Structures are given as C-alpha cells and as structure tokens.
Amino acid sequence: MPCGTWNKPVADGVLLGVSILDSIVIGAGQAGLSASYHLSRLGISHVVLDADDEPGGAWRHRWDALTMRDVHGVAELPGDTAPPRDGARANVAVPAYFAAYERAHRLPMVRPVAVDRVDDDDGILVVRAGDRHWRTRTLVNATGTWTHPFLPHYPGMETFLGEQLHTVDYPGPAHFLGKRVLVVGGGASAVQFIGALAPLTETLWATRREPVWRNDDFTPEAGAAAVALVEQRVAQGLPPQSVVSVTGLMLRPQEREAERLGAYDARRPMFARIEPDGVRWADGSFERVDVILWATGFRPAIGHLAPLHLRSAAGGIQLDRDGRGTTAVKDPRIQLVGYGPSASTIGANRAGRSAAKGVQRALGAVRDAPLQTSV
Ligand SMILES: Cc1cc2nc3c(=O)[nH]c(=O)nc-3n(C[C@H](O)[C@H](O)[C@H](O)COP(=O)(O)OP(=O)(O)OC[C@H]3O[C@@H](n4cnc5c(N)ncnc54)[C@H](O)[C@@H]3O)c2cc1C
C-alpha cells in the first residue's frame, strides 16, 4: 500500500517516519524526473538521489556554445510543455526547466549524492554513497551516460604532446583557433564539432567505420525503426548502442559551411598509431595535429549496480518485454531508464512511466511475500 508521504519534507533523504522506502531513483536527468513524477502519481514513497549540486542532469555540463536551436530537441517532461527552441544556452535553459519542474511537482530530491554501490541485504536494497546509505524495496536507475565517457585506446596515445579532449571537455570553438584539430568518431557529436570547427580552423576527421548519411526526412517511423534496433540488442542482453548510432547522420543548416569546405568528404579511416606530434596512418604517412578531439561516445554509468550481478554473459543488462520494457530480467525490483532504447529525452519520458509501473508490480510481489516492516 502506498505510504502517501512521498512529498513530505525529507531529512537526509529519509522520508519522515519511513526507514525502508518503497523506491529510490538514482539520477535526476530527464529519465529520473519522469520516473519520479510517475512514482509520485502512483503514491509510491521514494527519494531521488542525484550526484549533481543542482538540477539539469547532463545538460548542465554541455558546452556554452550549444544553444537550444542546436540540440536535436528536448522533449517535454510529463505533464509539462517543452522548453523553447531558441538561442538560449542549452546548459542554462534545460537546467532552469528541470529546476522549475522539480519545484512544481514537489519531487523529493536529495543532492548532491553520488551513489557508489547498491547491495542486496536479505531482500532489501541498500543504496550507498560514502558513509551514508538508504534502504529500499525497489530501485529506478537513471544515471545516464555522461559521467562515463568512452575513450578507445590507440598505441602511442600517452606519448602525444598536443592536447587530447573528449566530448565532455569540449570548450567551444574559440579554443581551437589556429590549431590543427583531428576529430575522431562517427556520431552526431563529431558531425557537430566539425560543423563548428572547419569554418574556423584546419579540421581533419577520422572514423572507425564509413559514416552512414541519411538525406531523407527523419520521420517518426524512421525513429521507431532505429529504437527497435537498440531494443533487439537489449532484449538479448547485449551492451546497448546509442540510438543515434543506428539512425544515420544528417547535416543541419549549421553544418552546411563545413560541408561546402569539404570537411566531411575528407574523412579518413582510423590512424594506426599516435606519435608525439600527430598520427601515423595505416599507409605509413604522417599527419601533424595539435589537438585530438575524441567524439567517441559514452557508456551507461552503471558501475554502482555491479554487486547486484545484473549483467548477462553478453555484457549488457537484459530488459523485459523484448527490450521495450524497463525491468531488469535478472531482478524485477530494478528498473533501468535512459538505458539503451530509452537514451533520448523522448525515450526517457516514456521509460519513466514504464518504470513506475514496474516498481508498482515489484512492490505488489514483495508485499505478497513475508516482509520486514517499516517503522
Ligand atoms: C552531446 C549530446 C547531445 C544530446 N542531444 C540530445 C538532444 O538534442 N535530444 C535528445 O533527446 N537527446 C539528446 N542526447 C541524449 C540525451 O541527452 C539523453 O538521452 C538524455 O537527456 C539523458 O537523460 P538521462 O536522464 O538518462 O541522463 P542524464 O541527463 O545524464 O542524467 C543523469 C543524472 O544522473 C546523475 N548520476 C550519474 N551517476 C550517478 C550516481 N552514481 N549517483 C547519483 N547520481 C548519478 C547525474 O549527475 C545526472 O544528474 C544528447 C546526448 C549527448 C551526449
């Protein structure tokens, strides 16, 4: 039975009078806020633990030059309208939108709390962050990918005397003026970086695979087909690919100048090794570069769930309903949102709803079993 105290004041993350929560949401990006909204509507006692000091999820950390017009689109949070697509900085506008949403819906936020690990203590989940811990019957993991950037290893990488940056470090185009920049990666971020840099400075591009371009309109059907590909992987317990990696790449008006300069045609397959002043291609030729910008993506930030042994032998976490659901097949108390097919703002919204229902189902199951009682 819902305890009905979900929106009462919290003291150090423990709802007044409740020592075992019905649920905990870890992460307060789009996915975590959506989950919390739906849990609240179902009257399920929970707190949202978030590692950041302030609202905004990963959007807080995106580069200053990224405006709301540049982003592919931030979907509206449940029960709200989407933030405007204007010239405002995304790292200001989205955090403000999330902050207002948290307040309007009185979501039970606790921050900053960086969760280190989650253990199973005789049927109760113990969520630990340093010397603090919370006990809960179910868990919604909404930790995104931003805190887990992926950097591939190439021979000689540590000998490079220039600058190596990942997408998470991107300081905006002005930083690169007068520098020879090699952008590595075949995703949407690489395309955007080249669009911004090629008109300003000498820019090269290397990708592992030939990029797949799409010139047709990106219809909802095409989006659904791309999401279905990721679902198939998650249904098999494979590590998820990003949705963008299976949609194909498109150039937007902002990238047309770089296209006119031939920056996208000059793409090369990956280099063989890195040397102090540049990179050596597979054919033996050498390219001097000042900066290597690794736009090589992210992996799900789920290391804290390792003690629960949710991963399949294939390396990913298998989700129910053929990968369309949010419930971990190995442990129905755990929901994953913003993971695999739901790693977009629109997918995260839907996943939040599905997760709240999954929590409700799991609570029904534990209540049918003998339970330790709340105080
Ligand atoms: C460069 C870039 C541009 C993108 N542009 C778009 C776009 O235009 N439109 C779109 O739909 N999608 C876009 N995406 C994808 C989109 O950002 C995400 O799918 C979605 O916003 C992620 O929401 P989330 O809630 O899953 O994660 P996040 O927004 O990353 O939020 C995760 C939260 O969890 C917290 N957290 C992480 N680990 C812990 C921990 N151990 N303990 C406690 N808290 C933790 C973090 O502090 C953070 O607040 C983009 C992604 C990237 C990388």
Look at the structure and give the mean pLDDT. Answer: 90
Strand fraction band? 15-25%
Query: How many domains make up the coordinates?
Result: 2
What is the approximate shape?
globular
Which structural class is indicated by helix and strand composition? alpha/beta
| CATH homologous superfamily caption of the largest domain | FAD/NAD(P)-binding domain
Give the cofactors and ligands: flavin-adenine dinucleotide
Low-confidence stretches: 1-13, 371-375
The end-to-end distance, rounded to whole angstroms, is: 15 Å
The SSE order reads EEEHEHEEEEEEHEHHEEEEEEH
Alpha plus pi helix count: 6
Q: Give the name of the CATH architecture of the largest domain.
A: 3-Layer(bba) Sandwich
What is the CATH class name of the largest domain? Alpha Beta
Rg of Cα set: 22 Å
What's the total number of strands?
17
Structure description:
The chain folds into 2 domains: 21-147 and 298-368, FAD/NAD(P)-binding domain (3-Layer(bba) Sandwich); 163-213 and 249-294, FAD/NAD(P)-binding domain (3-Layer(bba) Sandwich). It has 375 residues and is an alpha/beta fold. The chain is built from 6 helices and 17 strands. The chain has helices spanning 30-41, 90-104, 188-197, 220-235, 256-260, 345-368, and strands at residues 10-11, 14-15, 20-26, 46-49, 109-110, 117-121, 124-129, 132-141, 163-166, 181-184, 203-207, 268-269, 273-275, 278-280, 286-288, 291-294, 334-336. α1 (30-41) packs across α6. The chain is globular and about 70 Å long. β1 and β2 form a beta hairpin. Strands 3, 4, 5, 6, 7, 8 and 17 form a 7-stranded mixed β-sheet that branches. A 5-stranded parallel β-sheet has the order 9-16-10-11-12, with helices on one face. The longest helix is centred in the last third of the chain and has 24 residues, at 345-368. The structure holds flavin-adenine dinucleotide.
